Amino acid sequence: MSSGLVPTVNVLGLSYADSSPAALKCFFHTQLTRGSTPMSVFTPNATIAAAAARDDALCSLLQRGELLLPDGRGVLLAARLAHTPLTTRLPGIEAGETVLSLCASLHLPVYFLGAAPGVARRAAERWKERLPTLPLAGWHHGYFSPEDNADILHDIRCAGARVVLVCLGFPAQEKWIAENAPSLPDVKLLMGLGGSFDVWAGDIRRAPRAWQRMGLEWLWRSMRKPARLRTLIPAIGYLRAAKRSARQKKPVKI
Ligand code: UDP
Prior knowledge:
The two termini are about 20 Å apart. A hairpin with a 2-residue loop joins strand 1 (about 10) and strand 2 (about 15). The chain is α/β, with parallel strands linked by helices and about 250 residues long. The protein is about 50% helix and about 15% strand. The chain has one domain (about 10-195): Rossmann fold (3-Layer(aba) Sandwich). It binds uridine-5'-diphosphate.
């Protein structure tokens, strides 16, 4: 599904928002103030997009998001190689920060779900220090059993959350959002934000701005967690598939 209000560009089967950060902020404002049903926002990077290009079930899962943000240079590069260019990257963590500042000014309660025990609470409290008018609906760590899910939904509803930020990693966060959004009719926005709570809690540092500008955030993260280098091979396959799709003028399988 794709958002009716944000222009989108289809890259290998996924429709990404093609918007400036400022236009995206206006869109979130409209959804938060006037949206009548919960909206799911997913933030695929090249590794996630590569997994989706290889696996129809993962692709369908991502397509259930109403808004997909191109999180990182890899998706932009694939879009260019496929001759369907995107204007700019829209990192999930920055979109999350935009939504938090809107929630502070609109007084909309935010729930933080995910990451290791204690991290979501620290991330939420640090945001509260930065944005004192931000209403905190609550938090829960991301290592819960299926039996705990009903209690988490109950907490979210009772606290009157209007935004739920979900950091369980891919594809758990997208699955959680797709399965649970229908049970949260008062929530306006659910966002899958990967490792954002770890950064906001101060446990992990984002790549320096210069590295981000050069498109090297993936290298920074791989240096801190070498296991991530494994994702490089599927990401290269994804870029090659993008190039082939431009020649064949249709999405191709990896
Ligand atoms: N996580 C979680 N529950 C799980 C597995 C992972 O809450 O069962 C959290 C993990 O602690 C981390 C986040 O999900 O905070 C995923 O971070 P990662 O940097 O791997 O995500 P990415 O940004 O690469 O999608």
